[in-house]
Write a structure and sequence with these properties.
The chain is mainly alpha-helical. Helices cover 73% and strands 4% of the residues. Helix 1 runs parallel beside helix 5 and helix 6 packs across helix 8. 46% of the residues are buried.
Length: 306
């Protein structure tokens, strides 16, 4: 295979990997603080995509803002609305059910995701059809032989990598991150230490959901198209990446996201005629890895609670 084409596929894999990692980190954060699976998480990706589209279009239409400012307003709307949606779901559905069987939380959040998805389909004009996403980043192409990538794609990838790194530093190097890790380790002891349990939990849900919403904005900028059910498969992929990487850890879901994207890219490169089945093969690989590593590649570290 031509080196340029191979480099192109590797770039696409990195782009998918950072998006999957951002979604997977949210699943891991939710499980870490409350041992719950929030299955509305994929639909928060859709909320972020449509929020950014609406805010950027409204800002550009009302005030005729430059593309950079319209993009800033779109990102701000996506992150804010995504974080708010995550905090509301956490406060209204998850916290009241934290002592109930896990399947109750799973079902409640699954239904909340359906509500979000259908609200977009019915509330957005002609919401059942794909929506074009405006080109808000600088144009131009970087070429090296047969390798060609847009400057906007490089900027999107760099922003995603920086955000993943920033989230990792936030969790590992700040007082808020220390509070999250304390609650994840033992919520009762964290309360006795003076940590506001509810604030930390809701802040964690807001953080994970903001990451997912930003991923939705990235997808719109990269593919130039969004649709109301885009978060369904992305949620499943993000959850699978978090599980194979290690639910409750921080680095594991990031590795899992890039691993899933790497398998998809490898299928496209090695079996071009079977690229339509890249998701099938990737999920099959995840099943095998889960069978080999039942607790994930990087298991969550917890001391025994007595």
């Amino acid at each position: 295979m031509d080196v340029g084409i191979l480099a192109q596929q590797l770039f696409n894999g990195l782009m998918l990997g950072v998006i999957y990692a951002m979604i997977a980190v949210g699943f891991s954060l939710f499980f870490g603080v409350l041992d719950v699976i929030k299955f509305s998480h994929g639909d928060v990706v859709t909320v972020g995509a449509f929020s950014s589209l609406g805010a950027a279009g409204l800002a550009g239409g009302l005030v005729a803002l430059p593309p950079v400012l319209a993009l800033a307003s779109g990102i701000a709307a996506a992150v804010t609305i995504g974080a708010l949606a995550g905090a509301i779901i956490g406060r209204v559905l998850v916290l009241p059910l934290r002592h109930a069987p896990g399947v109750n939380v799973l079902l409640a959040t699954l239904m909340a995701g359906t509500v979000l998805r259908e609200a977009i389909r019915l509330g957005v004009p002609n919401g059942g059809n794909p929506k074009p996403f405006p080109a808000l980043l600088p144009g131009g192409v970087i070429k090296a032989g047969s390798f060609s990538v847009g400057i906007d794609s490089v900027m999107i990838l760099a922003a995603g990598l920086l955000l993943v790194l920033g989230t990792h530093l936030l969790i590992t190097r700040t007082r808020f991150g220390l509070a999250i890790r304390a609650v994840a380790q033992d919520g009762e002891v964290a309360r006795l230490s003076g940590i506001d349990f509810q604030t930390v939990v809701l802040g964690t849900f807001a953080l994970g959901s903001a990451l997912a919403a930003f991923a939705g904005c990235m997808l719109g900028l990269y593919y130039r198209e969004i649709n109301f059910n885009m978060g369904v498969l992305l949620g499943i992929i993000g959850f699978a990446s978090a599980v194979v990487g290690g639910l409750g850890s921080m680095l594991g879901p990031i590795i899992g996201g890039f691993l899933f994207a790497g398998v998809q890219t490898l299928v496209v490169v090695a079996l071009p005629v079977s690229s339509a089945y890249k998701d099938v093969i990737a999920f099959a690989a995840i099943i095998v890895l889960i069978a080999i590593f039942p607790t994930g590649l990087i298991a969550e570290r917890r001391s025994e609670r007595v």
